User: Fold this.
Amino acid sequence: MSGRVRRRDVPLGVKFLQYLSNRCFPISNRERSYRALAYCLTFIAYICFHMCRKPMSVVKAVLHRNCSELIPPPGVPIYENSTWCDWAPFNGTDANASQKLGELDSAFLFSYAISMFMSGFIAERVNLRYFLSLGMLLSGIFCYMFGMGKILNVHVLSYYLIFQIFAGIVQTSGWPGVVTVMGNWYGKSKKGVIFGIWNSHTSFGNILGTVIAAAYVEKNWAYSFIVPGAIMGVVGFILFLFLVASPSDVGIVKEEDDVESQEVQRRLTERSLLIPTATEEEKEVAIGFFGAFKIPGVIEFSLCLFFAKLVSYTFLYWLPLYVNSSTTMGASASADLSTLFDVGGIIGGVAAGALSDQTSMSATVCSGMLALAPPFMLLYQNFSSAGLGPNIALLLIVGALVNGPYALITTVVSTELGTHSSLEGNSKALATVTAIIDGTGSIGAAVGPLLAGFVSGYGWQNVFYMLIVSDFIALLLLIRLTKNEISKSRLVRRRFSD
Assistant:
C-alpha cells in the first residue's frame, strides 16, 4: 500500500506471457488476469500440499494388517509376517503398531504446528514466490523420500520419523503464503464465497492424495508417496515461474489501496503536528507476535480452531482405517469411500462462506455448524456399518459440518482479522495473524490423531466421544463473539426499522 515504491518482481513465466500478450493477444484488464492467475496457482499449490499429507492415512492399512486373515505367497512361512504382510517396524501387536503409526502422525503434525508460528514471521519478510516455491520443492522431496524407504528396504522407525518431521517443517510455508497472496489480491471486499470455493483446495487435495495413494497401496505402497512428491515438485517450479504474489509486483496500484493510503497519510499528518514525521519504512512495519494477539477475536478464533482442527484431522488421518475396520471393505475401497468426507467438506466450506457473506456474522455461522456436528457424528458412529447408503449420506453431512467452520476460520476470518481496523491500514499483519490462528489450530491437529491412536485401542466409540467433546468446546469458545454479532445485528435492524 502507501507511498513507498516497491521494486517490481515479475516472474519469468509472466514476462513471457506479457510478451505474447503484447504481440499476439492484447489483454484489456491485466489486473483481473493477474488476480485470476494468482487464484488458480494458489488453489493448485495448496491442493498439492494436502495431497502429500494424505498418503499416510491410506498406507496405514497395509503397514499393519490382520495377517491371520491373509494367505502368504507360496514358499513363505505364515509366521514371518514382516516379509509378506506387515512392514517392520510397524509389525507386532495391534497396540504397538498403532502407537508407532501415531508417532508418525505426531512427528509431522507437531513439527508443523511449532514451525507454523515462525513461518508467518518469515513470510512477511521474504519474497512470497520464492518462499512458496522452495517450500513446495522441499515438501515434494521429503514425501518422495518417505516412499523410498520401501524401495530401499528400510525397517528403521527413525528413518520415517525424520522425514515426517522435515516434511512438517517445510509444509508450513504453504498456508501463510497462499492466504497472504490471496489477501494481497482480494483486499477487504466481501469474499466468503470466493474463499469458500478457493478453500476447497484442502478437500480436493485430500481426495487427490487418497485416490493416488489408493491406486498403489495394495501393489507397492512406496508409489503412494513417490507420485505425489514428484507432482508437488513440478507444481512448485510452475509456481516459481508464474506466481504474481502482489499487485505491486507488476506495477498495479489497487483503488482501495489508494483510498487507504490517503487515510493513513491524513492520520500521519495530524500526528506530525505533535511528533516528528515517520520515514516511509517506519509507516508500515511487520506486526509483532504479541501485537497480533491484541487484535480483537484472534485469541477466541485461534483456540476454537485448535479444537475444530483436532476433529477434522482425526478424521483425515484415521477415517480410512476406521472404515476398513468397521466394514468388510479392503484398504483401497475404504480409502476411496473416505473421500466423501472431503466432498462434504467442499460443500460445507462454500456454504459457510456464502452464509458469512450474507450475514457478515462469521462467528455465528461457525457456531451453528459446530452445534449441528455432534449429533451427526454420533449417528455416523452407530450406523456406518449399516450399509453403503447410510455411510455415504452421513459422511457427506459430517464432512460439511466439521470442515465448514474450519474452512471459514482459516480463510475469511483470518484475512478479516489480519486487516482489522485497529491496525490502522498496516498490511503487514496478515501472514502473522494467519500463522497464529492456523498454528494454534495445527497443535490441535497434532493432538487429535495422537490421542486417537491411543483411544482407538479401547474402542472406536471412545474416539467419537473425544471428537464430540472437542466440538462442544470449540462451540463454547465462540459464545462471546456470537453474542456480540447477534447484538450488533439486532441494533442494525432497529435502526433500519426506526
Remarks:
- Residues 1-6, 258-284 have pLDDT under 50 and may be disordered.
- Residues 388-418 form the longest helix (31 residues).
- The CA atoms of residues 324 and 330 lie 6 Å apart.
